[in-house]
Amino acid sequence: MWQQLLINGLIAGSALGLLAASFALIYQTARFFHFAHASVFTLAGYLTYLFARTLGWPLLVSISASVFLTGVAGWLLYVSIYLPITRRDAGPTSLLLVSLGLMVAIQNIISMAFGDELKTLWDRPVGRGLSLGSALITPVQLLTVISSFVALISLAAFLRLTRLGLSLRSVADNEELAVVIGLDPKKVTAVAFGIGSAIAAISAILASFDTGLTPAMGFNALLMAVVAVVVGGVGSIPGALLGGVGIGLIRNLAVAVVPTAWIDSIVFLVLIVFLLVRPHGLLGESPSRR
Amino acid sequence: MAYYILHLVTLACILATAVIALQLLVSGTGLLSVAQAVFLGIGAYSGALTATRLGLDGVTELLVAAGCSLLVSLFVSIPSLRLRDDYFAIATFGLQMITTGVLVNWVGVTNGPLGISGIGPFSLLGISVRSPFALLGLALLVCVLAVAIASSIQASRYGLVLRAIRSDELFAQSLGKNTLWFKVKIVGLSAVLASVAGVLYAHFLTYIDPASFTLMDSVQLLSMVVIGGGRPLDAAAGTLLLVLLPEALRFLGLPAALAANLRQIAYGILIVVVVAFRPQGLFSRKQRAT
Fold first, then answer.
1. B289: nearest CA in chain A?
2. pTM for the whole thing?
3. pLDDT at residue B200 tops 60
4. Looking at residue A289, what is its pLDDT?
5. Between chains, do A279 and B223 touch, taking CB under 8 Å as contact?
6. What is the DSSP string of B116-150?
7. pLDDT in tens, A121-158
8. Which chain A residues contact residue B94 at CB under 8 A?
9. Which of A175, A289, A290, B100 is 20 to 30 Å from the Cα of B259, by its Cα?
């Protein structure tokens, strides 16, 4: 049974790590907690549902369209709402508040449009599980691990190898110096919002295939992703990934030890413990540097 | 109809006490908390359990509520306040999630999702508050006390140090102020004040359950501060507005589910609009709410 729990944990963790990494990417350049990322995630799931199930487009077309449009939506959120508010000299606290307002509004708009009941992207049988030692893994789960891995490798390659990725990293590292060498941090942040939202869309679509869609899916996923980001080290993308996998493992392995209902509380207790003993997380920089 | 309005105004007075307590953190110190419903809930559950299980009177209820909320506030404030301000928001977020988990799952004490019903009238020193008018009087009295406490803090040297922390914490430290201790004290005071409101809340509704003290409720309390403004009376006005506004929607005759969605959407958009265009709140002339 341990083998199965371990594998489930790694699968859940890789999808969570993907969402956490996208959240961290946005935080790195924008410097505030973008909670509306939760509704961006939900939006991606429902766009895919709209294209694939309501309009009957081919699955691959639906997924690509949804990832692209979600990226555009994230970019639009920054350009049309956050950016004008930033220009009015608002601090991270005001922006965090705005992101909470946006999250509540968008989630409820989705709930009005599609209803609160569980929806599925996939009505065919799950297919036979592949056996891996004594554990089973479904094709959807295998797909989750592979696509998360591919998406993260592409993100890393983009950040390391392209010019845009380099400017993104320099804004994240030191905004003032980035301005000195002629970068516009606002444009770079807008790009981070677009890419981060598209990555969140991939995570959302994988989650929709696995467990279905509800308007609260993004909220529930982001709760865990925020813990993953803090545990991994705020501002560190590899840290976010590591935190995601760690939280996925804890959630699944804890099943063997404590009643399921208590698992979420345990995860949030881990968050508080990390704030107490290791606030910069596993891979983050020491916050004393500010 | 008269009793209906009486009910709403009493509710607004009780909530306003918790909102004014939250304002001490948000407007007074620049700390964003998404856990004010936790302290309202701790007060409500402490009061309800002390009254229904132990049969003790109001004084004991208030003491238990204040003690519990103070302890819980230390649990978040000490780890997170050493760090940058947005870590406090993250820690309160963790606290909120843990509390909801505990209220739902610790069935032996909290009676789980079913909540606690049959809470009798509040009695203090042998006088029990039975009539709706007397309860309104009590709620109003507590609310006025909260306004008085908050105003006197704002006007005092202590409040001045808190404002200094809000505008430049490093500078306040350089003047020899132990800013951590100042912040821990105000978070504790805010929690205790909210728990007093919680005790009244339990006796007012005679029934409480975990669904009244969720993250969304905390966000609503926060939006009352932001929409109201930076002074104690602004926050009270913001509370009254947000208690009455959804009731007005009721008369439009919309289906219940749709009305709930619309109310949340209105909250969300109102927060965004106020932060963007009127950062000082609707009722304040210049003092910023966030």
1. A94
2. 0.87
3. yes
4. 43
5. no
6. B-----EEETTEEE-SHHHHHHHHHHHHHHHHHHH
7. 876 666 667 777 777 888 878 888 888 889 988 988 88
8. 227, 268-269, 271-272, 275
9. B100
**H or E segment at A132?**
strand A130-132
Contact between A104 and B267 (Cβ < 8 Å): yes
Contacts of A104 in chain B (CB under 8 A): 216, 219, 264-265, 267-268, 271
Strand pairing category for B122-124 and B127-129 = antiparallel
Tell me: domain B2-277, CATH 1.10.390, correct? Answer: no
Write the DSSP assignment of A145-186 as a string of letters: HHHHHHHHHHHHHHHHHSHHHHHHHHHHH-HHHHHHTT--HH
Burial letters A18-34, b for 16+ CB under 10 A, else e: bbbbbbbbbbbbbbbbb
Q: What length is written for chain B?
A: 290
Instruction: Name the pairing type of β-strands A135-137 and B122-124.
Output: unpaired
Q: Report the percentage of chain B scoring pLDDT > 70.
A: 98
B165-191 per-position pLDDT tens digit: 887 788 888 877 788 888 899 999 999
Judged against a pLDDT cut of 50, whether residue A290 lies above it is answered with no
Q: What angle do CA B193, B198, B201 make, to 5 degrees?
A: 135
Closest chain A residue to B276, measured at CA: A85
Q: Which of B77, B97, B254 to mutate to test the interface with A (most CBs of A within 10 A)?
A: B97
What type of residue is B226? V
Mean pLDDT, rounded, for A112-121: 90
Taking the C-alpha atoms of residue A192 and residue A187, their distance in angstroms, rounded to an integer, is 9
Q: Say whether A136 sits in a helix, a strand or coil.
A: strand
Cα–Cα dist A171/B54, whole Å: 59
- Interface predicted TM-score (ipTM): 0.84
**Quick check: B102 contacting A, CB < 8 Å?**
yes
Q: Among B87, B265, B275, select the one facing A98 at the smallest CB separation.
A: B275
* CATH number (domain holding residue A33): 1.10.3470
**In this structure, what token pair is assigned to residue A63?**
């997924």
**Minimal CA–CA distance to B72: which of B179, B198, B221, B187?**
B187
CB contact under 8 A, A261 and B105: yes
Give chain B positions within 8 Å (CB) of A38. none
* Nearest residue on chain B to A101, alpha-carbon basis: B268
Residue A63 · residue A133 · CB < 8 Å: no
Task: Give the dihedral of Cα atoms B53, B59, B61, B66; nearest 10 deg.
Answer: -160
Residue in B36, B90, B274 to test binding to A, most A beta-carbons within 10 Å: B90
pLDDT at A91 over 80: no
Average pLDDT over all residues of chain A: 87
A180-213 residue pLDDT tens: 888 888 899 999 999 999 999 999 998 898 888 9
How many folded domains does chain A comprise? 1
Show the domain range for A202. Answer: 2-289
Tell me how far apart the alpha carbons of residues A210 and A120 are, in angstroms, rounded to a whole number: 9
Cβ-based contacts under 8 A for chains A and B:
137
| Residue A20 to residue A12: CA distance in whole angstroms | 12
